[in-house]
Design brief:
single chain, mainly beta, glutathione-dependent formaldehyde- activating enzyme (gfa), three-stranded antiparallel sheet, 2 helices, 11 strands, about 10% helix
């Protein structure tokens, strides 16, 4: 299990963007929406939902890619185009960091999976919780509490 008492660093593929995470994630998840499938070129995207205070950009200037609307801002490296993190419009208390952007991402399996209605039929993540779309915000405290109890 990842030791979240230690800081963890990561960055984009080319290294132009670097970040540091301090503290434990609130959740780990996999999103199966077709948008994430297209942006990752894979079956799903992996996310660490971090408290905003636990995310620090160390190097580089990200650019917005993917969605350009009012709901979410997907931040990418302008040089290599890696999708590094997401911030939700009007919600400043968390940042969704792509798990695979960590220097050592292998120990943060998804606890939650979303948009399973759009999931490719052969994909299995082993996540404990599944939602056909996004979870209702009223489930947030319960989900983060269950995740914290497991971690």
């Amino acid at each position: 299990m990842t030791d979240w008492t230690q800081a963890h660093e990561g960055g984009c593929r080319c290294g132009a963007l670097r970040f540091r995470l301090t503290g434990a994630p609130m959740l780990t998840s996999a999103c199966h929406c077709t948008g994430c499938q297209k942006m990752t070129g894979s079956a799903f995207s992996l996310t660490l939902t971090m408290p905003a205070a636990g995310f620090a950009l160390l190097q580089g200037e990200p650019v917005i890619g993917g969605l350009h609307g009012p709901v979410a801002h997907h931040y990418h490296c302008d040089r290599c185009k890696s999708w590094v993190f997401t911030r939700a419009e009007g919600i400043d208390w968390f940042v969704n960091v792509r798990t695979t952007m960590l220097d050592a991402p292998d120990d943060a399996p998804p606890f939650l999976e979303t948009w399973t209605d759009e999931k490719l039929p052969w994909v299995e993540t082993g996540a404990a919780k599944r939602y056909p779309g996004d979870p209702d915000w009223s489930d947030w405290d319960r989900l983060t509490g269950e995740y914290a109890a497991r971690a």
